[in-house]
Amino acid sequence: MNSVPTRNQNYPTFLDLNDRRVLVVGGGDVANRKVERLIGSGAQLHLIAPTLEPSLKALSEEHGISHHARELEDDDFNGAALVFAASNDADLNLAIAERGHQAGCFVNVANTPTASSFLVPSLIDRSPLLVAVSSTGASPVLARLLTARIEAYLPHTYSELGKLADRYRDRISSYIPDWRKRRRFWEKLLSGRVGELMLQGRLKNIDAAMQSALKEFTDEKTTGEVYLVGAGPGDPDLLSFRALRLMQQCDVVLYDRLVSDAIMALVSKSAERVYVGKQRDNHAVPQESINAQLAALAKQGKRVLRLKGGDPFMFGRGGEEIETLAAEGVDFQVVPGITAATGCASYAGIPLTHRDHAQACLFVTGHLKDGTIDLDWHALTRANQTVVIYMGLVGLPVICEKLIENGLPQDHPIALIAQGTRSDQSVITGTLRSLPGQVDDAAIKPPTLIIVGDVVSLRDKLAWFETR
Ligand code: SAH
To answer: Which of 36-67 are b and which e, b meaning 16 or more Cβ less than 10 Å from the residue's Cβ?
Structure first.
């Protein structure tokens, strides 16, 4: 077995280089990258190289960086806080490093962590917030991958949030002298309404929001808010960043049968859970009562998460819920989710539109009322379109019959997707004539979605999810 070199743990720091002497030795692209990162640090940069490549020359002229057009001299190290051995010649860099170390400087050698006395991390820049990632030289690629993941997770508006905190720091410190109280204020502020407005980039009224947050805090009174959030069709990977953020900061969650366990597991552990799901023909909690509960909880000062399957505005009665909130003057926000139609279509390998098959797509509900379905059957049977039917499992035989009666051929393709996007997804494809029988035999359980149209035939080629 190969022995792994033992490494001391590096000591992470953020250096204030303002007015400090910093040497960059080298005149090519390596030096260029180092200089780019140093601009803005306030350091007195000294670029030492007989010649500079054109872009580095332009960069140094633009930023007034001193260029010494000669070889490195020992005197250059005097008073240097940091030295970058950044020529394009690896051996030369090692020699520079040795001289620098002898002169007592911290030296970074490009691409050679073992010869460096400090490393430059990968950076996620949300100035004034900085997240730095280092693999201690073990694997720069791994550090970059991790950086990319964090990068995607941190909205750019974190920068605004950091600037806001900076702007108000002194004022808040004199206003709330007790540090424990002050910390609670900042926590509440940054994870609450003001933080949320900032993260959404809604900066216009931020000072007013800040003032009222301060007033509220000193009055020890709080107002809540309702987050109406679409949780998507089931696979937790399909949640939006904002959905996840609100799920993790709510005080109470009202959720449906359609929200999968895997998604509920991501809701803040400390949030109170209230099930308000409905069963078919068995309205567990009447809609009016849900509307009223949302308003009442928010008025108690709680951050209320109303988590709904798919998209809240797609057959979700989300509109009714926020109508009540709007009428009662309760703050709310709506977060779209991936609706069952697009989620199931993608995971079943059935494109909803296609140049050769469908130029339009209709979303309808197949919910039975008194044994019939009230739909515009004529519109549903037009050529070159796809029809997606929500809540259609019980009515499936009636749906197929009506579509044939209104002019679609008996062998028109149709698919039924059960537990779409979840690990137990199943898809049955057939024709208007055959599908009701196939579904009976398969003992399918809801939720299920129906897709009608020629695009269903593409699944033979495009299925990818269950085949994994
Ligand atoms: N707001 C939801 C729809 C609610 S209506 C959305 O945007 O998706 C409930 C219907 O959605 C179900 O009867 C079913 O037809 C469909 N549905 C929701 N999740 C589904 C899933 N994972 N697989 C198949 N159908 C689903």
So the answer is: eebeeeebbbbbbbeebbeebeebbeeeebeb
Q: pLDDT band for position 223 (50/70/90)?
A: low
Long-range contacts of the stretch 87-94 (C-beta < 8 A, 24+): 87/25, 87/26, 87/27, 87/28, 87/30, 87/31, 87/49, 88/26, 88/28, 88/29, 88/30, 93/26
pLDDT digits (tens, 9 = 90+) for 374-393: 899 999 999 999 999 999 99
- Sorted by where each starts, the structural domains of the chain and their CATH numbers stand as 21-120 (3.40.50.720), 158-219 (1.10.8), 225-338 (3.40.1010.10), 348-462 (3.30.950.10)
Nearest CA among 315, 318, 314, 317 for reference residue 334: 318
The tokens of 322 are what?
């926020």
State if residue 235 touches ligand 1 by the CB under 6 angstroms criterion.
no
**Whether pLDDT at 280 is above 80:** no
Q: Is the pLDDT of residue 138 over 70?
A: yes
Nearest CA to ligand 1 atom 21: 420
Burial class (CB in 10 A: 0-12, 13-18, 19+), 151: middle
Percent of the chain with pLDDT over 90: 72
In contact, 381 and 407? CB cutoff 8 Å: yes
**Catalytic residue selected from 256, 302, 311, 402:** 256
Which residue among 287, 315, 428 has the greatest number of ligand 1 atoms within 8 angstroms of its CB, and so is best to mutate?
315
Q: What is the pTM of this model?
A: 0.67
